[in-house]
Amino acid sequence: MLAQRAGAVEFSALGTWHGKTSTMNALSAFGVGTRLGLLLPGHAEIEGEIDYSNPRQPVSNQTFQLLHVAASVLYNIPVGPGSLYLRGGYGKLLPSNCFYGTTPCSAHGAMTGAAGFRLPIGDLISLRFEGMIRSRSAYNYTSPGASFGLSFLRRPAKVASTVADADSDQDGVPDRRDRCAATPAGALVDLRGCPTDTDGDGVFDGLDRCPGTPRGTPVDAVGCPVKKPD
Question: Rounded to two decimals, what is the model's pTM?
Fold first, then answer.
């Protein structure tokens, strides 16, 4: 799905959670976040993110505002109608009204590593879940986190800018490299542009409403087992 649409734009609205921010003497906190990504050829994606939360400091029992701004690179792995992904990036933790004792908390950078998945609930909408870890070794800082929410996809324009970029069947693989022309709309393809059929039932992934059908099982036009008469 998402990984097959190079040139598409993805917007995500998420609820977030992060563990203790030891560099600011703060406890774990829930928050909200947004992400904006651009899908690239070869299952890659670049993404920017902004997360906001209100951690509490146990010593003073005060909360403060924590903004996390980051940029990441993702690698998407098609799985049935959805996709798994791996994400790596770098961001900055920006505190406001935060004090470590009597000293204002300092902003600092941190690396992020994450893994997640998307599960389609509509043609252009998916549930998105992710587990992640932020780390800054120089400060001995490591913090786990998670996010859950919705991802919205805006498909790329169907008109290719040049002949070299032309993709007649809109499967994300240019015609010059596409070994399987006229792929049905919505079908997932491999790097050669040929439709995949993970469960081998004759219905392409992305169009198969019952992925994981046992091999040899008779199926209908949408890939679901045919019910035998009583």
Answer: 0.66
Say whether 10 sits in a helix, a strand or coil: strand
What's the domain count of the chain? 1
Residue 212 within a domain: no
Is 119 part of any domain? yes
- Residue 181's pLDDT is 85
Q: Which amino acid does the sequence have at 160?
A: A
CA distance 35 to 8: 14
Structural domain boundaries, residue 32: 2-154
CATH value at residue 123 = 2.40.160.20
The one-letter amino acid at 45:
E
- Taking residue 67's Cβ as centre, other Cβ atoms within 10 Å add up to 16
pLDDT, tens digit, 9 for 90 and up, residues 59-104: 889 999 999 999 999 999 988 888 999 999 999 999 999 998 889 9
Cβ atoms < 10 Å from Cβ of 76: 26
* Greater model confidence, 227 or 99: 99
Cβ atoms of 70 and 107 within 8 Å: the answer is: no
In-domain check, residue 78: yes
The helix/strand/coil state of 169 is coil
Q: Is residue 92 part of a domain?
A: yes
